[in-house]
Amino acid sequence: MFVSFCTTTNNPAYLPDVYKSILQQELDNNSVNWEWVIVLDGIPEPEELKGLDNVHLIHRDDDEASKNNIGAMKKKAFGMAQGDLLVDLDHDDMLEPGGIMALVNEAANHKQAFLYGDSAGFKPTGESPILNSKIWSGYERSVGGIKLRFHTP
User: Fold this and answer.
1) Which residues pair with 150 in a beta bridge?
2) N or C, which end of the chain has less CB nearby within 10 Å?
């Protein structure tokens, strides 16, 4: 399975740490590969992430409709992604050890191709803020450090 992590950001501060959390994953390299598509909202490319094979740094469209428009930037990120599994990864989300394999297994068990992370542990204290959505119906589960929400029809 090919996993695409998609991130939009106007704050690059946590991106190197997020990248390290991805690199520290133990993967079955014969069956799981990944890429990270990052749409930068008016910020320069982080030096630590330039030229890396699995990381695609993209600048948001430079039109008025795209400025600070999270929806337009996410659409661009997911449109550039090549994965079988698309994972919405916030710019400050850290994956726990085993997180990618847990996400792959969760997606396979629920026949999902898109996973949306509501929140993840990223603070130095290990706290994970929970953002509640009033428009979501379903259930949630913490997988690989990301609180996932699954829609129930």
Assistant:
1) 139
2) C
Backbone angles phi, psi at 50, to 5 degrees: -70, 135
CA distance 15 to 140: 25
* H or E segment and range at residue 100: helix 99-110
- Give, in order, the Cα–Cα distances in Å from 93 to each of 14, 68, 120, 142, 153: 8, 20, 5, 13, 28
Instruction: Supply the pTM of this predicted model.
Output: 0.75
109: its two tokens: 């068990």
Distance of CA 66 to the CA centre of its chain: 20
Could you report the per-residue pLDDT of 55-103, keeping only the tens digit for each? 999 998 776 666 767 888 888 898 999 998 888 888 888 888 888 888 8
Burial class (CB in 10 A: 0-12, 13-18, 19+), 50: exposed
